């Protein structure tokens, strides 16, 4: 059993999963777009360029405006005054490299993906996984509902516990009305409370109320925490009980993102392995993770190698996404892989990921941080539900690349080559390098 089996996946109003079986037709056609298209994310030679040339290429292909490219090329993307207003006791910046994963085709859209990460191989592996998935039309997402959930914990005397479910049915509508009164502007934007739920904990008299809220473009932590505290105050006035914690849950099972892809078996051929053999070995590698939580932990770490860098680049709370992903992986009671790989009816490789990706495109630092604005521009300023789909696609691509390498040739050859590059860098920079800008334009670009 996988986490997906115990929690229903968001669907459209007819109850069908959107994009199910849609790897054909127009999207397959989009997959065949030539690299000559200005918006193609198949960027031949990108890896061999220097940083300035890559920015030029992104501008040329209309993935980025000159203005946004200039932000990324600048020596410090976050003014210190702004940094000081984000956190307490700020003394400076802590920088991470920002890389661009290429080759992504998501729901027929050509995408380049900004990834903020320190680990070598991650950006290359994401690009490689995306290239494999292009062979059968890229990635196909199921729309994500932007639901966040607040928890209000309370305890009653054990002898009164039996009355609580009846009481809860009477006050359901009142709780929803109170929640919506906390955020009238959210309601006017089409968001607000979508449901309430009473959960009975395995301790006599202890309950939790869940309030589910459509938070639209926001990740929603502040929205649902305000609601939780308001309902908590109301609860202590309405019921003889002791109110406990009032806070969101990061296990956002009503905010699951689901993405599917397929890979043509011919594209999986690798020295010594036929495509058929590679499909068999990759599905067997997935089965190992499905059976063994020790392997599932590493399998999922590889998925988060893809997810976290995009969450960070878009200014979102990666600790929340990490917590949600791992809690969801364990939701059946056994820690499980977040992806599934299988052989399709026609003998190719099929894959899917189901993962909560609670991110926003407003709130927090998203509208303030200049580099975050550049990342969102690279992604075409998506809405938060669409962004979740992009992020989960990168997780799936990353996992595909890792499993293909692990199941066929091992990862150390590629890893060690990059590691040696890092060691060489350490030799070169035995002092802290001065922070200077990326030079762009006229083919004279270089990182100084
Ligand atoms: C390394 O950062 C990630 C991998 O270990 C993931 C995996 O084993 O699937 C390669």
Return the CATH topology of the largest domain.
3-hydroxy-3-methylglutaryl-coenzyme A Reductase, Chain A, domain 2
What is the strand arrangement across the widest sheet? 3-8-10-9
| Contiguous uncertain segments of 5+ residues | 4-36, 443-448
CATH class of the largest domain: Alpha Beta
Helix and strand pattern: HHHHHEEHEEHHEEHEEHHHEEHHHEE
Shape: globular
Question: Care to describe what's here?
Answer:
It is a single chain. The protein has 448 residues and is α+β, with helices and mostly antiparallel strands. The chain has two domains: 233 residues, 3-hydroxy-3-methylglutaryl-coenzyme A Reductase, Chain A, domain 2; 103 residues, Alpha-Beta Plaits, CATH 3.30.70.420. Helices cover 43% and strands 18% of the residues. It has 15 helices and twelve strands. The longest helix has 25 residues. The radius of gyration is 24 Å and the shape is globular. It starts with a helix and ends with a strand. The site of (R)-mevalonate has 8 residues, from helix 11 and helix 14.
Layout of helices and strands, plus pairs?
Layout: H1 3-6, H2 25-31, H3 51-60, H4 66-73, H5 80-86, E1 98-106, E2 109-116, H6 122-134, E3 139-142, E4 147-155, H7 164-182, H8 184-188, E5 192-200, E6 206-214, H9 221-238, E7 242-248, E8 256-263, H10 275-291, H11 293-313, H12 318-329, E9 339-343, E10 349-356, H13 370-378, H14 384-408, H15 412-428, E11 438-439, E12 446-447
Antiparallel strand pairs: 1-2, 3-8, 4-6, 4-7, 5-6, 8-10, 9-10, 11-12
Helix pairs in contact: 3-4, 4-13, 6-14, 7-9, 10-11, 10-14, 11-12, 11-14
The structure holds (R)-mevalonate (MEV).
Residues 298-299, 301-302, 305, 402, 406, 411 line the site of (R)-mevalonate (MEV).
